[in-house]
Amino acid sequence: MTNFDKKTTILLHIQKYCMEIEENFKFFGTQVDTFKKNNIFRDSIAMKIFQIGELTKELDRQYKNFINETENEVPWRSIIRMRERFAHHYGDMDLDIIFNTALKDIPQLNDFIKRELDNKEGTE
Length: 124
Hints:
This protein has one domain (12-116). The longest helix has 29 residues, at 95-123. It has helices spanning 6-28, 32-37, 39-62, 64-70, 76-89, 95-123. The two termini are 16 Å apart. Helix content is 83%, strand content 0%. 23% of the residues are buried. It is an all-alpha fold.
């Protein structure tokens, strides 16, 4: 088993949740109405976004320079704020925002992580 540094481990976990969101869309489809009507679909997506927020908070605590250096590519602070909303105001969350985040923003986050991990492999 490969011994990854903590930042790489966090990024791999975020990537796993991004891929699971993609799998949800493959299973349930990409219609917002289905998302709004199906609590299993909705909760599955929301929990994964919440977990991405938790992991991002950990990145921010341990790797603030990385967060600051890559903020123009990934809205890390917005991810953390969304996590805070999920944790404290989940019942008031806008389902359209959650759906659009999952459908549009999560693939971009996943692409960023793939590039980061590829760059890391290239430097080792």
